[in-house]
Amino acid sequence: MATLTNAELVAALTGCRRPAAPTEEHGLRFAFYGRMSTSTFQDVQTSRAWQRAVSDELIDGVGSVVVEFFDVGVSRRWSWLDRPEAAALLAAAAGPDRDFDAVVVGEYERAFHGDQFRQVVARLNALGVEVWLPEAGGPVELGSPVHEALMVLLGAQAQREVARARQRVLAAMRSQTRLQGRFLGGRPPYGYRLVDGGRHPNPVHGRWGRRVQVLAPDPVTAPWVKWMFSERARGRTVASLARELNERGVVCPSGADPERNAHRSGERWIVRTVAMILENPRYTGRQVWNRSSTTGHGSGGRSGGRGSGALRYNPVSEWEVSERIAHEPLVDDETFVAVQGLRVAKPAKDGEIRRYRLAGLVVCGLCGRRMDGHWVHGRAGYRCPCVSG
Prior knowledge:
By secondary structure, the protein is an alpha/beta fold. It is 35% helix and 17% strand. The protein has helices spanning 6-13, 44-58, 84-94, 108-111, 116-126, 145-180, 203-207, 222-233, 238-248, 253-256, 271-278, 333-341, 385-388, and strands at 28-36, 63-72, 102-105, 130-133, 138-139, 192-199, 211-217, 288-289, 292-295, 310-313, 320-321, 372-376, 379-383. A hairpin with a 2-residue loop joins β12 (372-376) and β13 (379-383). α9 packs across α11 (271-278). The longest helix has 36 residues, at 145-180.
């Protein structure tokens, strides 16, 4: 059975025996630019289609789009040079074999934030490329008082929308953590794995078939988390725990989940990793959000996408902790609190607090282990069990 093309089907419906031959487009050659922030909660094809439709309507009768640049998964706050497709557009505009005369944007707020518009338009205008906006009804003239006022208004509106959206999202995430104990994404803590938690509580998302994920103990790594808390509560040092984990060949967090920890080697335990596990209140069964955050994007974090900037750990006062138990705990509250108390330096018998500035840094020359600190002859000293034992 032969399958008709859309044009042939339309021709049949209108009584034409053959579709009309496409006419050659004349006029200005446009490069279309569009953007969407996430691909998880938005449909790329739909977003691209409506932005392109607005652009085509704007330039109808003037010219046609000959090339497209569409960024996915980048924030409007990123500069054009930091957006892959926008940077490619600027490079193409400056190239000797440029195949477009102007740039058309489907919506101001999709493409620009803050002072970006003035900088991008000035750069393109210097190359002889116009920028067309639906809000301006055509090409933008930086020297026009009307267009200058319009750009100021649109810039303020875009910044306001970003601020409002950010506050709405943060408020919702705080509420979902505190009241519902919902898992809000990210890497599951060592000792846990993600399992299906049932239908999404939002009726709309539920009808779409979306499911929630919850934390459940991992049968391989959860026993080692319990062991760490138990041994630490007995008074063992964090360094000795890391050393024994390596000696036993226990897989470390980045080794247990290499896909989510591609930036780490996954070879062995370090003292800081054990300490962070012992400080994480999620092992008490409570959900915790905002323990860390990122600023901007670029170096210092993930290579791309949201939250790829430099990582910083927030003070405890900024954490959001669920009011109820959200998943199966790996440690009871009493043990967890006792372990936290061990992190505080306790005074010795003479009332003084011993400080070991090289703790975790001095390595035994015989066995390669990190040496334990101890007070000897009125000063800090370091020793290894392979010698003292």
